[in-house]
Write a structure and sequence with these properties.
The chain is mostly helical. Helix content is 94%, strand content 0%. It is rod-shaped, with a radius of gyration of 23 Å.
Length: 53
Amino acid sequence: MSKKKQEEKHLNAKQRAYEMHQAKEGAKVVKWIFGVLIVLALIYMAYTMYLMY
């Protein structure tokens, strides 16, 4: 294999690893966002029930 092809192969592997890392981080962020939204919804529900009584 020529040196250029070896560098491209390494770069592609590096890009794939970075892409996988970004996907994991993105999934984590999405879970946090949904968790916060659920907590806020519960707080709002409790607040509105408090106002009714």
